[in-house]
């Protein structure tokens, strides 16, 4: 089926078009620049930007794919989770399009859509197990991926989603009907921790890319920062499930970095002599260590043999390398889509929509509302 996917849950306005598992277009406009001076995404500004970018981005996707709205078989839109106002713009626009063009409409789960990207041709082919394959930008659909073994994502699939709003590990028994949450952050998301630490170090916003860059010049062993919820009491002393076994916590880490900076200040060290690169590298090591160790353990304990990485923090160099290393050691296959498909986009929504159409799942109709807290078990909204 030819499916249009619409994503507006945060600061990206995304319109993607797929034909089955083939990616035809992925147009994304971001309002990130408008949020920089506030040091975080302002929901009202994001919602207004979606409104302004809606039609131009839709048109761009249609032009790139070389299709018209009339030719589309179904429309899929992110209904949640996400920012209420931002989601509402996406859903209202999708309903208007579906009504005007007389197309079936699906309201989809944003997190499951991140996994849906793994069904796209070039991405699915890139996954091999147990050896981990980390894809760079631009490999999707290229000659290189055509040469790779065609290995559709396996049955026992896990998804590790790390972004500014989410840090979650999902078990995907069946993409269109059966997804469960194995663990998540109990406080800050990983990307949020990056943003907060970047602010502490005066490094800029968004924090992910600036800390990643700063960390390249630092020593990751300079400071030992806490790995939240990885103490034995959270694991179970003899292998039994402990509380928060597969959950993460990043607020203690953020506080530890703040104390570290304060100690230098209290000792009268001038600001420009505080070893920010070492702090950044040590922080990044703690984040990558605790995310990957707990993700791999969740996979091992739940019989997951293949892991898909998604979310903006998937761009992180240390997370990628450590995850590849640890998955390989544990015999877990790994798929890391190109960054433009890891961050929020419409192609992932279209990809999940196409799977739902192919599986004969009933569309959501026109009466559903955006659900900012949509649980992961709710893959598509019922009519
Ligand atoms: P959502 O949580 O709904 O998916 P989001 O806008 O917060 O939305 P993304 O757009 O997927 O998430 O990703 C943005 C996040 O990714 C930001 O928090 C940013 O700091 C982080 N990020 C980007 N590049 C890197 C990097 N190299 N290292 C670590 N984090 C990064
Ligand atoms: Mg974003
Ligand atoms: Fe996302």
Automatic annotation (TrEMBL):
Domain Gcp-like: 22-133, 159-350
Residues bound to substrate: 161-165, 195, 208, 212, 316
Reaction it catalyzes: L-threonylcarbamoyladenylate + adenosine(37) in tRNA = N(6)-L-threonylcarbamoyladenosine(37) in tRNA + AMP + H(+)
Required cofactor(s): Fe(2+)
Entry keyword annotation includes Methyltransferase: no
Taxonomic path: Bacteria, Bacillati, Actinomycetota, Actinomycetes, Micrococcales
Name of the protein: tRNA N6-adenosine threonylcarbamoyltransferase
Pfam families reported for this sequence: TsaD
Note on how the cofactor is bound: Binds 1 Fe(2+) ion per subunit.
Compartments, as annotated in UniProt: Cytoplasm
NCBIfam families reported for this sequence: T6A_TsaD_YgjD
Residues the entry annotates as binding Fe cation: 110, 114, 344
Keyword vocabulary terms for this entry: Acyltransferase, Cytoplasm, Iron, Metal-binding, Transferase, tRNA processing
Record's function text: Required for the formation of a threonylcarbamoyl group on adenosine at position 37 (t(6)A37) in tRNAs that read codons beginning with adenine. Is involved in the transfer of the threonylcarbamoyl moiety of threonylcarbamoyl-AMP (TC-AMP) to the N6 group of A37, together with TsaE and TsaB. TsaD likely plays a direct catalytic role in this reaction.
Enzyme class at the top of the EC tree: transferase
Protein's UniProt keywords contain Lyase: no
């Amino acid at each position: 089926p030819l499916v249009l996917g619409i994503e507006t849950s945060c600061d990206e306005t995304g319109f993607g078009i797929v034909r089955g598992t083939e990616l035809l277009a992925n147009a994304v406009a971001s309002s990130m620049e408008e949020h920089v001076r506030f040091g975080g995404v302002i929901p009202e500004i994001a919602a207004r930007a979606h409104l302004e970018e809606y039609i131009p981005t839709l048109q761009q996707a249609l032009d790139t794919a070389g299709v018209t709205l009339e030719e589309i078989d179904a429309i899929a839109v992110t209904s949640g989770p996400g920012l209420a106002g931002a989601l509402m713009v996406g859903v209202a626009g999708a309903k208007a399009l579906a009504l005007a063009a007389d197309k079936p409409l699906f309201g989809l789960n944003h997190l499951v859509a991140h996994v849906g990207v793994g069904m796209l041709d070039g991405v699915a082919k890139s996954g091999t197990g147990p050896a981990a394959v980390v894809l760079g930008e631009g490999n999707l659909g290229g000659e290189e991926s055509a040469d790779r073994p065609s290995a559709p994502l396996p049955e026992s699939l896990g998804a590790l989603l790390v972004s500014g709003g989410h840090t979650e590990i999902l078990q995907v028994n069946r993409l269109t009907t059966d997804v469960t949450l194995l663990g998540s952050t109990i406080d800050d998301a990983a990307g949020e921790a990056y943003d907060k630490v970047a602010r502490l170090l005066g490094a800029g916003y968004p924090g992910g890319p600036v800390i990643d860059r700063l960390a390249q010049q630092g020593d990751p062993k300079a400071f030992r920062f806490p790995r939240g919820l990885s103490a034995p009491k959270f694991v179970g002393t003899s292998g039994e499930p402990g509380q928060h076994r597969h959950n993460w916590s990043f607020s203690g880490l953020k506080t530890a970095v703040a104390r570290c900076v304060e100690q230098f200040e209290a000792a009268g060290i001038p600001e420009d002599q505080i070893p920010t690169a070492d702090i950044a590298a040590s922080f990044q090591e703690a984040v990558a260590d605790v995310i990957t160790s707990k993700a791999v353990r969740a996979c091992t304990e739940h019989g997951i043999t293949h892991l898909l990485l998604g979310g903006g923090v998937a761009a992180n160099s240390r997370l990628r390398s450590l995850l590849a290393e640890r998955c390989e050691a544990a015999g877990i296959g790994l798929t890391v889509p190109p960054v433009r498909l890891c961050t929020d986009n419409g192609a992932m929504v279209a990809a999940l929509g196409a799977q739902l159409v192919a599986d004969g799942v009933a569309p959501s109709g026109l009466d559903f509302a955006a659900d900012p807290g949509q649980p992961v078990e709710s893959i598509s909204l019922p009519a």
